[in-house]
Amino acid sequence: MSSKEKETGSSYKMFKMFKRNFKVIEAEPPLDVKDAFSKYSEGKNLMTSDQLLQFLINFQGESDAKIEDADKIISNILQSRHHIAKFTRNNTLTLDDFHHYLFDQHLNFPINPQVCHDMTAPLSHYFIYTGHNSYLTGNQLNSESSCVPIINALKNGVKVIELDIWPNSAGDDIKVYHGRTLTAKVPFIDCLKSIREYAFVGSEFPLVVTLEDHLTPELQAKAAEMITQTLGDVLCTSLECLEEFPSPGALKGKILLSTKPPKEYLYSKDSCENEAPCEDDKNEKKVTEDKNDLDTEDSEDSGGESENIDISEDKSCSLGVHKYKSLIAIHAKKHRDGFATSLTLDPSKVERLSLSEQQLEKGAEDHGTELVRFTQRNLLRIYPKGTRFNSSNYNPMIGWMHGAQMVAFNMQGYGKKLCLMQGMFRSNGGCGYVKKPDLLIRTDEGNKLFNPGEKLPVKTCLKVRVYMGNGWDSDVKASHFDSYSPPDFYVKVHIVGVPADAKKFETEPLDDSWTPVWDQEFSFPLTVPDLAILRLEVRDHDTGEKDDFGGQNCLPVRELKSGIRTVPLYDREGKKYNSAKLLMRFEFV
After folding, report:
1. Which of 119, 206, 352, 441 could form a disulfide with 332 if both were Cys (CB 3.0 to 4.6 A apart)?
2. Pick the catalytic residue: 100, 117, 125, 178?
3. pLDDT tens-digit series, residues 284-338
């Protein structure tokens, strides 16, 4: 390049940065889009609704598409792009219109945006969007406790909220905070009111509230009164002694409490006939000395066992505790007496077990199939290890591949792991419930359970083609990426799943373009596609500096629609950009 050309280029970059209103040059349609238009329009310049329907059925794999769907697409495109042509075009699309349809995130989805899973199976057959310490605004040690993160979680579709309930300093009221830390406190009643108001904003399917109960019997009685008065008829009471849980569909509009029942009732005549009494936890009262134990079972799931207080002397208190017990819909139990013992099945009842991420990782080494068997009928909750003081998260895949329904996450812990969680639960219409794949629910033809650690043959190959991207110029400031030039975008394309399926690729960086065209294809042989997630992340390449973040998305592979699709991008917190998106193609071969 001559010195004059370099100067012109530099001037153009400076000019482009400061003249933000100048239109970004639009990239032409990829070759695959041109070929598809030519084929289905039969070589003509215009595509009719009948021809578009054939494209939807044969190329996009939408076998249930109807002519009304094609008409609606054309009408939307003409309405948005040609206000006059919609009256003169006779309901047809040009190549440019066709390309705009394919690159419209509101018309051409990568996954079904509606609830599309069977919602009539037992709760244990679903992954459930689960929060950890849902009241915390920041870290686990000294951040604020508030109703705001609870409300935000519910708005975003979270369907399991966790509250740690403790006596206040006077011992006459109930506060929510992370015990044995410096986190601030929020009144229990305020949390209940927020839950009641926002429980079904995300979807009408049931909400589970897990209580980490550190209350005296008197305060358990008070909690029962608060819960009853605040939640009222939306509260689903005891489901004990059931051989299987009800379905999400049957529990629409209901809130279920889950905790351990008060200690005296573990031995009472009201218990299920075959329910074995739990032993006292000898370490129940022990104050944690090691920071590593901050979230071990003593603090995570003390679950309502009174600390050796005799409640039989106060009849009114006893009645209150009985009322409290009757409100517990899902009974929880502790992990004790060995991993295998915790997974023992009782055919006469179903319950919830909690394990830390470390306990799961260690136990899964020798008890992978037992975990899968346990989660076919019972609920398993996984929570972060105690050393995650900064509210970071762990890889949710180890929980999901063993059938754990409640993989509890810190919703304020932004990063790649939370992106996986958010991506999983954008499927099935974002309702907070995702049907587990059949391999986790049933045995195979030889009556064999799925073993996550077993090497399996390749079942399918996913081909992913990254065509192009655009929209960043509308969503971010010109200087967000580079100060004096357009960004140099590239895309990371990863599969997260069972270890044998994990694979990473990335496109070449495209220099100085707000509308990059990569047109690169990557192949992913998959042994367990039902548990695989496609992770996408856009970066701006910077020599000598950390590459800037340009958006991300995670898509469950089993939910992917084949064909050419628009993939919207999300920011670091999981909020969707208004315009930034990728045009991609997905094929299963």
Report:
1. 352
2. 178
3. 333 333 334 444 444 554 443 334 344 445 666 788 889 999 999 999 987 777 8
